[in-house]
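Posting for a labmate who doesn't have an account.
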Amino acid sequence: MAQPKTIKFGKLKIEIGDGATPEVFTAPCGFTEKSFSRSKALNEVLIPDCDDPDAPVVVATDVASITFAVSGQGVLAGESVATWDAFFSSTTSRNIKVTMEFDAPVGTIIYAGKAHLESFEVTGQVGNRVTANVSLRGDGALTRTPALS
């Protein structure tokens, strides 16, 4: 039995562009959990049988929209606070990259697109380190490198 190709935590990178030319992407420090999700909003349409109106209708599903989201949580790293504050204060989306670095033959997969920092939550509890929880919401198309053939 062949084992699946898997990656460790550090090979999943979430990076934020600085908006400069050339753009520099950095991975904010402090994450102990990361999440990348893609979703579709679907519409259902009932399709009747024209030859037999009493037959059960068939449900057709159409894609209405596609989006993505990125989230992360972990310790509040002082060196990343300015990045999160600037991103949250901006009313325009920023370029982000989600990278998954697999060994051969899979290789590196990069998803890139624009996103808004939807939420930035800081939580503290006595006896523990202060934590941060962030949520990014996609703004437009997402590209994949390498592209699917």
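Reply:
Got it, the structure tokens are right above this. The longest helix spans residues 78-89.
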